[in-house]
Amino acid sequence: MNKYGAILSQKAHLTLSTISTFEVQPISTEVQEGGVARFACKISSNPPAVITWELNRTTLPVTTDRITALPTGVLQIYDVGQKDAGNYRCAAATVAHRRKSMEASLTVIPAKESHSFYTPTIIAGPQNITTSLHQTVVLECVATGNPKPIISWSRLDHKSIDVFNTRVLGNGNLMISDVKLQHAGVYVCRATTPGTRNFTVAMATLTVLAPPSFVEWPESLTRPRAGTARFVCQAEGIPSPKMSWLKNGRKIHSNGRIKMYNSKLVINQIIPEDDAIYQCMAENSQGSILSRARLTVVMSEDRPSAPYNVHAETMSSSAILLAWERPLYNSDKVIAYSVHYMKA
Questions:
Q1: What end-to-end distance do the CA atoms of the chain give, in Å?
Q2: 50 has which bridge partners?
Q3: Closest CA to 332 of 289, 294, 312, 303
Q4: What Rg value do the Cα atoms of the chain yield, rounded?
Q5: Which Pfam families match (predicted)?
Q6: What would the pLDDT profile of 169-204 be if each residue is shown by its tens digit?
Q7: Fewer Cβ atoms within 10 Å of its own Cβ: the N or the C terminal residue of the chain?
Q8: Is the pTM value of this prediction over 0.85?
C-alpha cells in the first residue's frame, strides 16, 4: 500500500500431506490358464501415492510383457499360468505415509482341451476422467478373446491422437502425458479379432480443466471529477471463471454510482475518493489471477465538487423537500444549483 492505493496479492494454497483408507481393494478371482487376470486398488492421498504390487508378500516384478501395473492402481496379468497363482496385495506409499491393502487370491484353472473360437470382449474399458493441465492420465482397456484381440484407439471426433504425448502401456492401455486442452475429447478403445471384422468398442470422455487466463485486461484511466470511468476485463478457463472487482484490495459492491456488468466496471459521477487502484479477479477451481489498473481523478482548480448529503423528504402528494450541503471543494465558486429529475 502507498499513496496511490493498495493491491491484493495472488492467493496461495496450503495443503497438508494426507492418505485415506483404500476405496477399492483387490478381489479374489479365478482365471482359466492363458486368460487375463486383473486386480485394482484405489486410494486418495496428497501428494498422490505410488502403488506397487506384491505376490505372496514379495514385490512383484512388472518388467515382463505379460504383467502391467498402471499408475492408476490396476494390475493386469496376461497369458495367466500356474506360476501366477497366489495372494496379491497392493502397497500405497507417499513421502509421509504407507498403506497395504487386503490380500486377494488368484486361482488358475487348467485350460480346456478345446480351442474354441470366441469373439472379443472388453472386460475393463476406459473410465471418464476429469484432470488438470500438465497431469498424466491412463485410459485402461483390457480385452479377452480367441485368438487374442488387437487393441486400437481413436477419437470419436476423428481428430488424430497426439503421438508426441501419448504412448501405449502394456497390452493396450493409453497413457497421455503433460495433458493439454486439445487432449480433451471422447476416446474409443476397439478390440478386434486379428484378420476379421469382429470387434467390440468401449469409450470414455477426458475432460481437461484449466485455470483462468486473461483475454482482455483493464487499462489505467485519467478522468475528470463528475466524469465516467469504464474498466473492461475478460478471462477464460474451464470451468468458466467467476469475475469480481477490488478497489485498493477490497471487494467492490454495486451501488447507485458504481455498477458491475459481468466483465465491466462502470463508475459514474466520479468523486475524488474514486482515485484508487482497481483490480479484476478471475477465479475457478483451478486457481485465480489478478490484473490491475489505476483511476486518476483530475481535480479542476476552479470547479466546485458535487453537493453532498443530498436528501429528499415527501411533504405532500405533489411536493418534495430537497436539501443538501454545500460542496467540500471550491464552494465559494457556486453560482447556482440545478435539480434534474425524471419519472421513475
A1: 42
A2: 93
A3: 303
A4: 33
A5: I-set, Ig_3
A6: 999 999 999 999 999 999 999 999 998 888 999 999
A7: C
A8: no
